[in-house]
Design brief:
By secondary structure, the protein is an all-alpha fold. The protein contains seven helices and no strands. This is Endonuclease-reverse transcriptase.
Amino acid sequence: MRCYRRLLGISYKDHTTNEEVSRRIENVIGPHIDLLTIVRQRKLKRYGHTTHSPGLAKITMQGTVNGSRRRGRQKKRWDDNIREWTGLELKNTLQKAEDREEWIAVVRRSSAAPRRIPDLRDR
């Protein structure tokens, strides 16, 4: 949003909502794919690529490293995002990623409609 505001010359002092900024950007550049959708799609494709191929990348992605973790909230992992976006368990995603055509369908289904996190205003 900061980049969009700068491109349009909108200051934060103007009290313009993010929805208004998005609408103005769409009027200027036309319809575009949301950045989160692009990231989701690329991450799912990469997961399918590394899962399908044998090698160190596959072992690293599916393995865990022994040791203690830092204090605080546990970090999100790759497989957490994959489970959340596809709605499948990890063993099912591994099976589907082995079949390229089926994994492409999963990627399209998962990244077609971006999931919006509800705000407090929506409750």
